[in-house]
Amino acid sequence: MKYAFWSVLLLFTSCVSVKELALYENEVIVEETKDVNGFQLTEIFNDDITSEIWFTPSPACLTVTSERKEVFSGSGAMKFTWNKQAGGCPWLGLGIGWANWSGKDLASIENSAAISFKVKTQEGSMKGLPWAMALEDYAGTQAWIGVTSGYVEGGIVDTTWRTVTIPLVDFQFEGWNLDAGTVKQLLIQFESNGTVFVDEFKIIPFKPKEPNTLVVTKSYGWVNDGFIEGGQFVAQANMDGSVIYLNWNEKELYIGGEIEDVSPCRNMQNGRDIWNGDAIEIAFSSETGISDKRMMFYEGDRHIGIKMGGNFYVYDWSREKNIKAQISVKPLQNKYVFECVIPWSELGVSPWKNNSTYNIDFAIDQSTSQDTRDFQRRWNSVNNENFNLNPSLWGKLKVELPIISLE
What we know:
Layout lengths: L3 H9 L30 E3 L7 E3 L6 E6 L9 E7 L9 E4 L16 E9 L4 E2 L3 E7 L4 E5 L9 E2 L4 E6 L5 H4 L6 E8 L2 E13 L7 E4 L18 E5 L2 E7 L3 E9 L18 E6 L17 E6 L6 E3 L4 E3 L2 E7 L2 E9 H4 L8 E12 L5 E6 L16 E5 L8
Parallel strand pairs: 14-26
Antiparallel strand pairs: 1-13, 2-5, 3-4, 4-13, 5-12, 6-11, 6-13, 7-10, 8-9, 8-12, 15-16, 16-17, 17-23, 18-19, 18-24, 19-20, 20-21, 22-23, 24-25, 24-26
């Protein structure tokens, strides 16, 4: 279920500092390397396992060894083999306290750098890595992120060397209350199982993308007939060939879409499980002046879904209830078109205000022939499926007055 991964991260963050095992092969002498905007401690791991590296001491569940054959560059790499399902496994993790465990100031490069490393499997392939990674400060606070396929070159980890690039900004230091000026170590939490070789952990220059932005104005004269007509919508969220439209007025919120789908309108689920089939999700704020980096829902935040199959309806995950709405859907060949009108009174929040900025994100859930979700497309939080739990992953919504022509 889509809510599970974030819960795993929260469950284990209190366990990271226990059961440490250091391997001693070569002591590290910290040298100045090519800097990133003045930050010089960019080499996290190069060739040798040293006293800067520790891992959970559970040989049946996790082994970390030096590698001299499967090497991307230099004289050495590391080999990780783990099996969380082996039975009796404790928390499985590894830490790298690079630069001799000194406090690293990553705050100054949060918006201009990324953590990068090379990885390949011993055999087979996997979509992304079943890992969570974190940065930890000297107070023990940790900022976590999942190593999803969006961070992997080509989206797949296989038997060729692939580059993984995770922007520092995606760790969301402020949301986790991490003191990014005193970073102690990089952490890896292992889930599932696998064997990989890793090399060249480093910090590299990187410019993160700006949040996606929608601009909406008020809309009147709405016709809810399942046809998208000119003038009904101003805002368009484009997602890999599909489009979700948005507009509003003081009484109602308008959502529409043209969704590419080879088997449209398949959803056998009900209630909070409608995500597990064809569905449209929208998460948004209704208050201004609140932090873009908050990692929990506020009272005025909403996460709703439109069930696109069977008995069409809208479900509000924020309040765990169905809400009344008008829905028109037209299944076509390899796609469907829909319109949905939701009263603000049903949403239980105040309408958006002109000349204000909010946060918003969309997702398209699509099912397989087995009537369960096969994949999810997201608008702003492309690399992180936890937008339904974490508002800091949402894009921007600007509400503006319509431009009136004087001609």
